[in-house]
Design brief:
Shape: globular
Strand order of the largest sheet: 1-10-9-8
Mean pLDDT: 97
Strand content: 5-15%
Order of helices and strands: HEHHHEHEEHHEHHHEHEHEHEHHEHH
Largest sheet: 4 strands, parallel
Low-confidence stretches: none
Structural class: alpha/beta
Length: 354
């Protein structure tokens, strides 16, 4: 099977030759080419090289075109981004730019073909799809409406806004949804499907009520229908953290793949995802992947695989790998997948207390 065939089989809840491996490699891409995230995220040639190096180094089953995944649209809308020329820190938004409905009314939806760094990512998408897209699914990172609104208004202020002025919060979300859709459509025109990142909507930052009344309808009624009408078939919605309390509302968005991050209830996620016939990805904990040791990473990966290796529509990855993350830590997860696929694992023996 090619990587594309493997993922497409799992997305159809069919059996593949092995479980797809989808580690979260963003700023770590830059380390693979010996450059800073600030440099790679602004240079199409370097980003292209970094993605090919990621493929060579980790053999993942999908690639994501993204470094600082929550900054690109906000910058295109006018937010100032601080870049770090002499360090490997990830670029960040300096300050919000909206404090009132009047401020929102001054913004227009940016043209992805020309606005700020959007063309950099679209150029890489075009090149990658042309050269390897027949064999592997390549995704374009787009910011979801809730997280984009939090960048434009300020994270804490937007949380308060959802309670104090839900009407204005909804207006901001609707505007941001248009930006999400236009960037997503630009990727689709190049053969690359968008992956939506919206982790500001995790339950520790957005209440289940806000997810149900504000976030879910925007995806269900606008974002997903628009992207599907533009040709999108595989449209993951990635929200990290413990999303157990909002599983039903996330599935109701109409996205076509979800994330059960640590410490969400993976069993419940698998049950509800199977009932809805949508695939779900689990993560080995990001802290563990970045700190190690390899033995603990292997154990957690095997615990997940013991419970989920036979689940239709299952993918395995890890939390975000740091810039200076160790390759062997990530590859320890891939090794587990290969061993399970080969039928070489006795889970009882593997996970026996030592």
């Amino acid at each position: 099977m090619t990587k594309r065939q493997r993922v497409e089989a799992v997305y159809a809840l069919e059996r593949a030759d092995r479980i797809p491996f989808v580690p979260a490699i963003y700023e770590h891409k830059a380390a693979l080419v010996g450059a800073s995230p600030s440099r790679v995220c602004r240079d199409a040639d370097l980003l292209y090289q970094a993605l090919l190096r990621e493929l060579e180094t980790y053999d993942p089953d999908m690639l994501v075109i993204g470094i600082d995944v929550y900054n690109v649209e906000a910058e295109a809308l006018g937010c100032k981004v601080v870049y770090f020329e002499n360090s490997n820190d990830v670029p960040g938004i300096v300050e919000p730019i909206i404090d009132s409905p009047a401020g929102l009314s001054k913004l227009g939806v940016p043209d992805p073909e020309s606005a700020a760094r959007m063309p950099v990512y679209l150029e890489v998408a075009k090149r990658l799809y042309r050269e390897i897209g027949q064999d592997i699914i390549v995704r374009g990172a787009v910011t979801g409406p809730y997280s984009m609104a939090a960048e434009l208004i300020g994270a804490e202020k937007f949380v308060l806004l959802t309670m104090d002025d839900p009407g204005f919060a909804h207006q901001v979300m609707e505007f941001c949804a248009k930006v999400t859709v236009e960037f997503g459509k630009a990727f689709l025109r190049r053969g690359v499907e968008p992956i939506m990142f919206d982790s500001r909507a995790t339950p520790t930052l957005a209440s289940p009520r806000v997810v149900k009344q504000l976030l879910m309808p925007v995806y269900r009624d606008y974002v997903l229908p628009e992207l599907k009408a533009a040709g999108g078939r595989y449209l993951p919605l990635i929200i990290g953290g413990n999303t157990t309390s909002i599983i039903d509302d996330l599935i109701a968005t109409g996205a076509t793949q979800f994330l059960s991050d640590r410490p969400a209830n993976l069993k419940k996620w698998c049950e509800k995802a199977l009932a809805a016939r949508v695939p779900v990805r689990a993560n080995v904990d990001a802290v563990l992947v970045n700190r190690g040791p390899e033995s603990a990473i292997r154990r957690q990966a095997m615990e997940i695989l013991r419970d989920c290796h036979a689940h239709p529509g299952f993918l395995l990855g890890c939390g975000v790998v740091a810039y200076d993350g160790k390759k062997e830590h990530v590859l320890a997860i891939k090794q587990c997948l290969d061993e399970v696929a080969a039928g070489a694992v006795d889970f009882d023996k593997e996970l026996a207390e030592r």
